Amino acid sequence: MQFIDQARIAVQGGRGGDGIVAFRREKYVPAGGPSGGDGGRGGSVLLVADSNLQTLLDFKYKRLFAADDGRRGGPNRSTGASGSPLVIKVPCGTEVRHLRTGILLGDLTESGDELLVAAGGRGGLGNAHYLSNRNRAPEKFTEGKEGEQWPLQLELKLLAEVGIIGLPNAGKSTLISVLSAARPKIADYPFTTLVPNLGVVRRPTGDGTVFADIPGLIAGAAQGAGLGHDFLRHIERTRLLVHLVDVGAPDVERDLEVVEQELKAYGHGLSERPRLVVLNKLELLAPEELEALRLRIEARLGQPVLTISAAMAQGLEPLKQAVWQELGVG
Fold this sequence. Notes:
about 325 residues, alpha/beta, Spo0b-associated Gtp-binding Protein, Chain: A, Rossmann fold, five-stranded mixed β-sheet, about 25% strand, rod-shaped
C-alpha cells in the first residue's frame, strides 16, 4: 500500500433548496391562502477519524468532495428534504488546515473524532412566511443559500510514543524488526527505508507501545535535503526519541551532532524532547574502544549512553527498560 501523508482537497457543502410559491385551493376552504413550503438544508461535509486507515491514499485521485443539495419546498407548507451529510474517513492523527491561511481547523487523533469542514446552505423560505395583514396573497419566496466551500490541507502525523531516529544505515529498521513484529525492508545501503514504519512493542504491563522508524536524516534535512525532512512531522507527537548511532562510522561524534542540529533546525520542540542516545553495531568495535567512545559521548551529553547490537539482539533488554522508565511505564 502506498504511503501518502499529505493531501490537498476541496470540500463543498450542499446548496439549500428553494422555497416555493403555492396557494391552498381546496373545496369548501375559501381563501385558503399561501402554502408554499421551505427548501431543505444542504448537506454538510464531515471528516471522521478511522483507526482502520493508515494513509491518505484515498485523496490522491479524488480532490473534490461535495455533499448533496437540499430539495425544494412543496405545497401545503411541506419542507423539502435536507441533503444527506457527506462523511469522509481519514486516518487517526490527521491535522486539517485551511490551505491558503494555514489555520489549524482540527486535529483528529482518536477513532470517531469528527470535524465539520463545510456547512450546508440554509433552505429558502416559501411564500407562506410572507403572509401579512397587508399582503394576503404573497408571491414572494427566497432561494436556498450556497453551502460553504473551502480548500483544505490534510497532514497525517503518525501516533507513536517512541520515535527511532538517526542517519541512514544506523540500524533503525533492524531495531524495530527485532523489538516488534514489524517487517520493514532492510538492506546494506542508505535510504532503504522510504516511508515511516510502525511497530508495537510489548510492555511489562501486557499492553503495547507504538514505535516509529523514521527514514534516515542527513545534513540539511530540515531544509529539504534527503528523505527524512518529509517525515520529521511524524515524530512531533512522540514522547521519547531513540537516537541510534552507528559506531562503525568514520566520525561517530560528528554523526551524532548532525542529527542534533537537524532536530533544532526543524523546531516544534524536537530538540527538547526526551532522548535516549544508543550506540548500535557494538560488534564492530573492540570492547575497550566501544567503552572509550561511550564515555566520551556521555561526557559530551551529560547523560547515560546505551550500547546495543540490533542485528545480534544484544543489549535490547536494558534499552527497553530505559524506554519504559522514560515513559513512566511499570
